[in-house]
Amino acid sequence: MTPLKEYRRKLWSPKQTYIRLPLDEVLLSHIDVRNHTLRLTKTGFLFQTYLWICRHKCLFTFIIFVCIPVLLYTFLLLLSTTQVLLPKNIQSNSIRRLLLVVAHPDDECLFFSPTLRAFQAQHRIELSLLVFSRGNHVGLGNTRARELLGSCQALSIPIERCLSLDLPNIQDDPKIWWSQQELIPIINRYIDLWSIDLLVSFDRQGVSGHINHRAVGLAVREIITSGNYTKAKIAYELQSVTLLRKYSSIIDVYFVFISFVPRILRALLSSIIPFNLISPPNSSRVLLLSTPHDYMTSRTAFASHVSQYNWDRHIYLIASRYMFINELNSIEKKIIGQ
Ligand SMILES: [Zn+2]
Question: Does residue 259 register a pLDDT over 70?
Fold first, then answer.
């Protein structure tokens, strides 16, 4: 056997099937062969990982979209009663009553159920609900007002503090802006009447972009930031997210977890490092998660909104991250004289 044939046999033996390089190229020189071999050795782990993913696509998809999100969600749920996710000022006993201000019956289920369940079930804060319309856009106002009572019952909101208003200038309409001058005195009246400590509402985007949501959220913000007297000690607005994140269910926990990593690290490191070398956690953000029991309670509450239980709502209850995750941002209260 000639030396060239012997060399070819060694390089292209049946056992070396992983070397799929063109044979002519491999045989160009001994140095080239060594370089190729070295490159394959260096990328071996990545290459093997890639091969494994190609061979187990279903399992890989299951791990990425189910296993890891569930693990991260469970980890955050374990931290949900600590200061890592919920600031000390909310956990203090001075916060006893919460008022949720929304625009339509069913907003409390579709967007705020993790907030309501976490505050009521985990922190024993009394709930109140003020809904500025009866959702009478297609003439179902009275029906939806009745359905709201069933939802409040499921969410442990006392019926006497579960209110849907029916005012001539504030009716469910996606094209008519609600005047702040009309909303603000009404909210203030119920803050005083129900001795509210904590206000929660939509942010400027209103989660779905509905202008009634945005008007209500802006009215709450105006009450807190205007410097006018209010009994409410703290106010939070529900963070809106992109459409992709909104309908990513608990997979959105990837984004949420990353954003809370600095606070989690600080909580872990502060017990190791005796000095307060790390800046205090940002208490302006709150993360509230539904337990499986909370989620089922929220579904039961939404089942009361029979007139709204269309086919797309079945998808929403599974696909929407707002059924599982609420991120609240603090509205900074303006002190008179500042
Ligand atoms: Zn709404």
Answer: yes
